[in-house]
Design goal:
By secondary structure, this protein is mainly α. The longest helix is centred in the middle third of the chain and has 30 residues. The two termini are 33 Å apart. 74% of the residues lie in helices and 0% in strands. The chain is elongated and about 65 Å long. The protein has one domain.
């Protein structure tokens, strides 16, 4: 029999929200995101029509790319939810490092890239980075509080 999960701490709730956000974003990329957003040709200094003429298969190819990317977002979000729900409260060694690397290579890199591209969504995509950082801070504070209680 497996042990029941420990009560979810604030850091777990924050990371669960991050995981759910990643899943929903992945579903958007797979089901709803158009191959080219109006900001894409604007960044390239051209028009959608010019891109369609110059590279007629581009939109179909990008659809496949976004399916794969969306699938990876759903997978990463699912794993983040699992870690938040089952493993964060156990304070397993390496958890903080794994969450920091996942946040830096996932949401932070995506947000930074959208700022680089001057995306219309750049400010909105800063929110998950701040949420991820809040989760890390909560985790560290919970660790410090647990260490202080154990020392008494």
């Amino acid at each position: 029999m497996s042990a029941s999960p420990l009560p979810m701490r604030l850091s777990g709730k924050v990371f669960a929200a991050c995981g759910l956000w990643m899943i929903l974003l992945g579903v958007y990329f797979v089901l709803l995101r158009p191959a080219l957003l109006p900001e894409d040709p604007r960044f390239m200094g051209t028009s959608i029509e010019a891109l369609q003429v110059a590279a007629p298969g581009l939109e179909g190819w990008l659809g496949h790319v976004f399916n794969v990317m969306g699938g990876f977002m759903v997978a990463a979000g699912t794993m983040t939810l699992l870690v938040a729900w089952r493993f964060l409260a156990r304070r397993a060694p390496g958890t903080l490092l794994a969450l920091a690397v996942a946040g830096a290579s996932g949401v932070a890199l995506m947000s930074a890239t959208n700022f680089l591209l001057h995306s219309d969504f750049r400010w909105l995509l800063l929110v998950p980075v701040l949420l991820w950082l809040a989760g890390l801070v909560c985790y560290l504070r919970e660790d410090a509080a647990g260490t202080a209680i154990a020392a008494k």
